[in-house]
Amino acid sequence: MQLTLLTISEPNRFNIVELLKKGPRSVGDIVQALSIGQPQVSRHLRILSEAGLVKVRRQAQLRIYSLEAQPFQELDSWFDSFSELWEERLDQFEDYMSEIHGKEQP
């Protein structure tokens, strides 16, 4: 999970992940969509692949990239683990605000 966060923290890799959320894309499609050079896109895709975030398949002469679901599911589960904590804190804040507003009224 830490590797996932570190890998997608780079803006171009984040943008590639955002594109791939919409579906598989070729390197050329990614280059056009992001307006960055093919060597940079290929380097970022290699890093994403080494981190296990994308997979590649050949289709004739094209390489088609798509997201690997598991690392993002793990990330989602980790973020969900904070929901109980935040709900509790928001409930405490709501109680505090009610208490303050109750004291202000004559």
From TrEMBL:
<feature type="domain" description="HTH arsR-type">
    <location>
        <begin position="1"/>
        <end position="97"/>
    </location>
</feature>
<dbReference type="InterPro" id="IPR036388">
    <property type="entry name" value="WH-like_DNA-bd_sf"/>
</dbReference>
<dbReference type="InterPro" id="IPR011991">
    <property type="entry name" value="ArsR-like_HTH"/>
</dbReference>
<dbReference type="InterPro" id="IPR051081">
    <property type="entry name" value="HTH_MetalResp_TranReg"/>
</dbReference>
<dbReference type="InterPro" id="IPR036390">
    <property type="entry name" value="WH_DNA-bd_sf"/>
</dbReference>
<dbReference type="GO" id="GO:0003700">
    <property type="term" value="F:DNA-binding transcription factor activity"/>
</dbReference>
<dbReference type="Pfam" id="PF01022">
    <property type="entry name" value="HTH_5"/>
</dbReference>
<dbReference type="GO" id="GO:0003677">
    <property type="term" value="F:DNA binding"/>
</dbReference>
<keyword id="KW-0238">DNA-binding</keyword>
<keyword id="KW-0805">Transcription regulation</keyword>
<protein>
    <submittedName>
        <fullName>Winged helix-turn-helix transcriptional regulator</fullName>
    </submittedName>
</protein>
<keyword id="KW-0804">Transcription</keyword>
<dbReference type="InterPro" id="IPR001845">
    <property type="entry name" value="HTH_ArsR_DNA-bd_dom"/>
</dbReference>
